Please model this.
Amino acid sequence: MCTSLPMELYYFPPSPPCRAVMLLARAIDAKLELRHVDLMAGEHLAVDFVKLNPQHTIPTFVEGDLILCESRAILGYLVDRHAEDDSLYPQEPKRRARVNARLYFDAGTLHQRLYDYMVPVVFRGQKPSEEQWKKVEEAFGFLDKFLEDDEWVAGDSITIADYSIVVTTSNGEAFGLDLGKFPHVSRWYNKAKESMQDYEELNQAGANQLGNLFRARVAEAENSV
Amino acid sequence: MPIDFYYIPGSAPCRSVLLTAKAVGVELNLKLTNLMAGDHLKPDFLKLNPQHTIPTLDDNGFVLWESRAIMGYLVQQYGKDDSLYPKEPKKRALVDARLYFDIGTLYQRFAEYYYPVIFAGASFDPDKLAKLEEAYFFLDKFLEGQSWIAGDSLTIADLAIAASVSTADIVGFDISKYPNVTKWFAKAKTAIPGYDELNYSGCVQFKKMFDNLTAGK
Model:
């Protein structure tokens, strides 16, 4: 019986949600066929890609007739369908709900606020907004609270929520977040980085790239005034 | 023991949980949490949820926030079957993908366009309207050739997105430009149990607040 269809991932290395999928796939040893989509060159707007995913976002995951977008849905699917056990995304309703809650916190608050801070600088030539940075710090303050009594972001063991949030945290750091202000985040972040296979290659390199791009744009915006 | 639910009727994410509870057949002990009066910043609530967001659910000590996580939990823990949130990995992943589309794009862009006008006295920003319209264009594409948001049956993704779409609709966002959305929305309103009582009534409250806070502009 043939049960393993090829799994394709349309991705761009510096893209944070793509990095989360790459890290998790490595952790469960899921072999992805990588399809490079250069966002800066507009490759996501090519006719074939828009046909695949009308929202033309990356990551986009394809396995047989399944076309899946949204990184956090992809993380969950990879564990549900391809991991040896459910430890990274527990089936038990309460444990799963906690993981989902943290993934939605990342999608709607932590990542969202960082994204809102980055986009005007990187894509619109604006200076970084101090007001928006305060919101970023507030969100990391919430995360710090969540981690006060828990070893990992959704309880006492590592889950896909850690994979998603470690990427967001590395972006925060790349944009200048002082992790010293968030002791619980700091403790968790160091442990998470050590626990994730090929972390430097799959995440840190992309975070550095994004950080360099951000700083170059900040310098341009300052010099243009 | 009752399940406490901290909510406000005008909030779309709160309404989507109410719709889920109704569809699953679970009773919630409703705890009205008035954001305008700062109920969410009181010490007892902060102890429960340091992020002080609503909706928040307290199921006998198991405290959960993030509406879409609560919806999944109610189906998994209390549902008679898994039809609203299928266990099969592919089907579930498609529901999850649409829930993330809602939080990150559809509802997000609604909030970005309307909230500064409602809560901060700003004027409408045409660039933000264009982004919101694009989000509805994506939703319309997703619905092409399928009856429901995540496939051929009603799921919690329909409940979440019905709450988002109805809220945009009532404050004047024109959904008639999106034929698949319009068709789906008409069907959703009749298919979702308790829609009028639990969702539409909350939309009316949201509209009242919108009118009050934007009066004279």
Observations:
- Residues 113 and 126 of chain B are 9 Å apart (CA to CA).
